[in-house]
Amino acid sequence: MDLAGLRVVKAVADTGSVSRAAEALNCVQSNVTARIKRLEEDLGVDLFLRLSRGMEPTPAGRVLSGYADRVLRLVAQARDAVAEAAGRGGRLAVGSMESTAAVRLPPVLARFHRAHPDVELTITPGPTETLLADVLAGRLDGAFVGGEVVHPDLIARRIFDEELVLAEPAAGLTTESARRTLIAFGRACAYRGRAEMAMREAGRVPFRVMEFGALDAILGCVGAGMGVTVMPRSVVERDPWRELLVARPLPDALARMPTQFVRRADAIETASQRAFLKAFSEDSCSGIPLKAAAAGATGTPTSRTGLNGSSAAC
């Protein structure tokens, strides 16, 4: 059993197929098959069921895949820690809601890059539920997500609060159909959930939903008079949308949306990650002021099992 074998086990377990695992590992299928066979002979158990539709882990295979995931993440963390200690900067993979990436991150990224030019930083935008899954799977070191996060394997640190508003075209809604059309992200987004509640409270029922996967597409369609949306005020009131959209306040229960930085509870917080979050705490334009930027940081896993899906945001 070695790191290469563990990578093969995890790839087959994740993809459910020798061919897809070989593609992910950039090797030939015969190498994957041979690795799995040698591991099964070494451990004396079958790790996968060979099915007509692919490969399915046995109970023993699921156990080994779980250990492989943890070992490989720890190895990656060790490499980054050594690189940092050697002054080579290390790597940092961060996920972010698209609205946060568009409005909040640019000045922070600029400050961080000036102070830490050797850190290899990547930003991956996405909806909260996807980002949480990527953090849990070790594909991201951490992510900025919306709403309260409750999961035993995650640590959540509250960074700032956004004020959500109902955005309408500045030229007005000219048809009843547009008044009852919600333009939004998919259902994994709490902006979507808050928007649906706002539509109901405003009596705009029944309403229809037009889903888009890009922030500017949503805002552009609202500006063109196709419907309404719910977004952070910081997004609606930036150029060029401030001339095309008008922000209507929402009730307090719907307006306040916390943005939190989450990471795995068993992951080591690197110097690069601490410096990145410090750059955020030094930013003077980080949403609705909090008494402390780290007010939600506990240093321990969140207390209850499961994710609070109703508070997920894009």
TrEMBL record:
The entry's keywords: DNA-binding, Transcription, Transcription regulation
Annotated GO MF terms: DNA-binding transcription factor activity; transcription cis-regulatory region binding
Domain HTH lysR-type: 1-58
Keyword Hydrolase annotated: no
Pfam families, sorted: HTH_1 (PF00126), LysR_substrate (PF03466)
Family statement drawn from the similarity comment of this UniProt entry: Belongs to the LysR transcriptional regulatory family.
UniProt cross-references to PANTHER family, sorted A to Z: HTH-TYPE TRANSCRIPTIONAL REGULATOR, HTH-TYPE TRANSCRIPTIONAL REGULATOR GLTR
Name the record gives this protein: LysR family transcriptional regulator
Gene source species: Azospirillum lipoferum
